[in-house]
């Protein structure tokens, strides 16, 4: 299994992105069409438990598969795993789309 940033080709990254999307399905559906408590972050943007849980699941999967990748997520901020000495690849995550879908479907 490839884990180093330099050796990763596009097909490996695409496959892993699909795996991440699959991981997000179950927690997304858990909250889909349900009333959610909406909290406000320091910048006044909305956040729900669904947003935080999905980002945590994705962070855990990325850290396990690619320990040398950094992560900057909307809900939990920046994180560099101990093995990330190069900082060459940082993934950006913004799961707010799940919040919007759940909110609109509940209306």
Could you list the spans in which at least 5 consecutive residues all have pLDDT below 50? 101-107
Mean pLDDT: 74
Strand order of the largest sheet: 4-3-5
Shape, principal axes of CA atoms:
globular
Radius of gyration: 15 Å
**Helical stretch tally:** 3
How many strands, which pairing sense, and closed or not: the largest β-sheet? 3 strands, mixed
Give the N-to-C terminal Cα separation. Answer: 44 Å
Helix content: 40-55%
Give the helices and strands as they follow along the chain: HEEHEEEH
Strand content: 5-15%
Count every beta strand, where a strand is a DSSP E run of 2 or more residues. 5
Tell me what you see in this structure.
Helix 1 (about 10-30) packs antiparallel against helix 2. This protein has helices at about 10-30, 50-65, 95-105, and strands spanning about 40, 45, 70-75, 75-80, 90-95. With about 110 residues, the protein is α+β, with helices and mostly antiparallel strands. The longest helix has 22 residues, at about 10-30. It is globular and about 45 Å long. It has a domain at about 10-65.
């Amino acid at each position: 299994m490839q884990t180093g940033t330099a050796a990763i080709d596009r097909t490996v990254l695409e496959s892993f992105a699909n795996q991440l999307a699959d991981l997000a399905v179950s927690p997304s559906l858990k909250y889909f069409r349900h009333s959610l408590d909406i909290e406000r972050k320091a910048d006044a943007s909305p956040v729900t438990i669904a947003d935080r849980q999905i980002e945590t699941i994705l962070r855990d999967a990325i850290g396990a598969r690619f320990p040398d990748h950094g992560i900057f997520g909307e809900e939990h901020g920046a994180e560099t795993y101990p093995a990330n000495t190069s900082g060459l690849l940082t993934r950006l995550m913004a799961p707010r789309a799940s919040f919007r879908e759940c909110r609109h479907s509940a209306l």
